[in-house]
Amino acid sequence: MKFPRAYSLGEIADLLDCKFIGDQNFQVLGMNEIHVITPGDIVFVDHPKYYKKALDSAATIILINKAVDCPEGKALLISDNPFKDFNKLTKHFRPFQAAQAAIASSSTIGEGTVIISNCFVGNHVTIGGNCLLYPNVVLYDHTVIGDNVTIQAGTVLGSDAFYYKKGADGFDQLLSGGRVVIQDNVNIGALCTIDRGVSGDTIIGEGTKLDDQIHIGHDTVIGKMCLIASQTGIAGCVRIEYEVTIWGQVGIISGVTIGKKAILLAQSGVGKSLEGGKSYLGSPAIESRKMIKQLVTYNKLSETISKQNTESDI
Q: What is the pTM of this model?
């Protein structure tokens, strides 16, 4: 998430009421999680295990809970609770704004777009031309829809990320300040849910088609011309490259990459990144040819054991 203007390190430190290491005029351009950061961004880290990763990342401002050696060309914000202060920044730069109408006056809707009754279009939503939204579609604030997009009834775009940290009194939520971006010529089925990014974007690529009842987690990026069948669940921060086919009831763990033109057969469970151009089956998912051979071998073994048991009973 980029800020509306460049801020100084001193201004951000004052906002958070924390100390800093670096030039107080050091420019701060935005805030992001570590997988989507760019130079000028703030990233937070609150565990020594991840200090080096944060300090060596593309982030130029590190919100951290301990004073450490600051790499050249970077700055530190020293916080007692970086998680809480990251939320404070989200609240400040992307505050909750209560809706005043079913279709917010701050939204932008392109020529030829049809929005059927009982839809909700939130603040600062952008919808392109020649789109069709069926009843009860919900677009949370800052959602972006391209041209020629069809969204079937009951789909929700832009709900909060499922991102929690165990605290002393329960689970603390990392607030969502990102967006959902739907590119041109996408079709989304009924009752789908797509979470917005924590600080970046959840993106559905151009020409991709989603069946009914699909869930896509925060900050996931789906490439162009993918096909995804019903009841698929995709966790946060997944990268799905172009022309991937995913059949029904597939589950994909967070943080993995599915290579271009891969095929995930029904009910597969993906627990690691998969190469493109191959077909996968099973849980955990492996190449379908290997899985089919394993199943054939298992069935033959089962038949042999059953036959031996029958002969021994005679």
A: 0.92
